[in-house]
């Protein structure tokens, strides 16, 4: 233990001060392992690194509610010699700017750093995002799914369209009536035919696509329950009864980056499992039967069925 009760700081990445990863990324990765008081400092730095450069130690300590020595210990915890060194490294990181490949990479990074930084950055982002996922909301959405007459999944754009189809396929296997629409016309038709017994799941990381918003507004007018998979504060979030958050760091290149992909995949999986556990046990048994049928009867199964083998023999002119 240190003099004022802080736990000893964890060992930081061996590259933290060598330029293999910038100070902002170092702080993001180290934050979950730091004492609570230092985590508050880390969050302030990540939220507004520019302001840290203009703030002295005493004012910074007052803003976070810690002592000035805790600020110094934080700087050392993330590989800096002190607060002055921390500010110099922050200034360098901000001056360099975000690379147009990935926020965790810098020119000259070797392959080892690329692998470590990308995986570490994603793990840190998803760990932080997990704190935003409210189990109570998941439970309410799963209950609504099981009570719905129909569940229509709206996705506009390449990623959202895929996620809507994936969610629809999973709900369909659970014996629920579910559809997926990416076309603006069909979304409006779906919304117009909805009732208070129906649920619409609108998926959009951006959360402000005009055609999608129009369809969701119409579904609300018809009494449907709206579930939005989007970032907090977007127009889509404002239309939803329940919001499943997608608040992850922005990608340097793609509008919807890897962190957002993974968060959406995980949400779809969570919704599927939470909904399935509230179904009749016979539904779970039927899932097993579906899996076995796909394994034995599908042409791309692990165990090729006799029918598929005969078809291939016909195509290639082979005999038994």
Automatic annotation (TrEMBL):
<feature type="domain" description="HTH rpiR-type">
    <location>
        <begin position="21"/>
        <end position="97"/>
    </location>
</feature>
<keyword id="KW-0805">Transcription regulation</keyword>
<dbReference type="InterPro" id="IPR000281">
    <property type="entry name" value="HTH_RpiR"/>
</dbReference>
<keyword id="KW-0804">Transcription</keyword>
<dbReference type="InterPro" id="IPR035472">
    <property type="entry name" value="RpiR-like_SIS"/>
</dbReference>
<feature type="compositionally biased region" description="Basic and acidic residues">
    <location>
        <begin position="1"/>
        <end position="16"/>
    </location>
</feature>
<dbReference type="InterPro" id="IPR009057">
    <property type="entry name" value="Homeodomain-like_sf"/>
</dbReference>
<dbReference type="Pfam" id="PF01418">
    <property type="entry name" value="HTH_6"/>
</dbReference>
<keyword id="KW-0238">DNA-binding</keyword>
<dbReference type="InterPro" id="IPR036388">
    <property type="entry name" value="WH-like_DNA-bd_sf"/>
</dbReference>
<feature type="domain" description="SIS">
    <location>
        <begin position="141"/>
        <end position="281"/>
    </location>
</feature>
<dbReference type="InterPro" id="IPR046348">
    <property type="entry name" value="SIS_dom_sf"/>
</dbReference>
<dbReference type="InterPro" id="IPR047640">
    <property type="entry name" value="RpiR-like"/>
</dbReference>
<protein>
    <submittedName>
        <fullName>Transcriptional regulator, rpir family protein</fullName>
    </submittedName>
</protein>
<dbReference type="Pfam" id="PF01380">
    <property type="entry name" value="SIS"/>
</dbReference>
<dbReference type="InterPro" id="IPR001347">
    <property type="entry name" value="SIS_dom"/>
</dbReference>
<feature type="region of interest" description="Disordered">
    <location>
        <begin position="1"/>
        <end position="20"/>
    </location>
</feature>
